Sequence to fold (372 residues):
Amino acid sequence: MNAHNNRTRRPFVIEEAVAILSRTPSTLDALLRGLPDGWIAAHEGGDTWSPFDVIGHLIHGEHTDWIPRAKIILEHGEAKPFEKFDRLAQFAESRGRTLASLLDEFAARRDANVRELASLDLTEADLDRLGRHPELGVVTLRQLLATWVAHDLDHVMQISRVLARQYTDEVGPWRAYLRIISGTQG
Amino acid sequence: MNAHNNRTRRPFVIEEAVAILSRTPSTLDALLRGLPDGWIAAHEGGDTWSPFDVIGHLIHGEHTDWIPRAKIILEHGEAKPFEKFDRLAQFAESRGRTLASLLDEFAARRDANVRELASLDLTEADLDRLGRHPELGVVTLRQLLATWVAHDLDHVMQISRVLARQYTDEVGPWRAYLRIISGTQG
Fold:
């Protein structure tokens, strides 16, 4: 399969990344706003996350992860490792808030960050610049921005799975056909 | 864990099912409408499906699967097996169409079907009525309707995964953290 016909991989193009990043808040808004509370608090057992927890996590990323790390790369390169990302910050930050207010904040922060990304006017050479992840080591700005996109989609997938699995028992024998419940990949 | 605190399973409640079913068209619209063509046609290799293919499959389900099967259960019970569902119908039916027209049709059909579901005014006794799946055997109307919900979410998950995996190479070392790409469940 040549590159032209390859439908399984796309090269990073900043306008395409922005097209997806800009759509995540409205996607999650359409999926979640107004759902009964029990669905918003649903999880997969143990310390797994609910849709409510995930939106808080995405907000925390808007504040501390993607654009701040991009700026560290542009200003300091490999010399300054990124701050570690706190994967549990949302449990304190979202306490007492409503899902509606979290969705509003996520949309506003994402909009501001996508504008800030545009204002950086990144060149291909900028995208090749190197930074240092505290655990993964040397990374490029391009990899950071591609990860921002994939991370959004990872959490859309997670929320869909958390919701669907609430009906693990209710679907009865159809369980065998539903990969989202059976856990098989297809 | 008692039933009241159980956040991993919810009983089937028709108003809650309708809340999710009603949101799927706008969720997929927000995620996909206007994305560059290469993303709409993206897939996971071989005969896996693209987002375009999935929307066609969802439309076919609106025409031939969920409500038609519910009516077979209500009218014939176990006596009449469901028609087999054609999992490949969308490849002919969607040919030459635009994603925008498929999203419009899905939204219109889903809206009509949710109204028809409401008009059936189903009781708990109706939900316990039995039907016959051509492969799975005896099922209940409740299981059919719960599967409609989980099936929607399964395809939201699939589309998210197909899109994210386009950046399998571009995310570099972050691949290890992205379950949507690494394929591990979390």
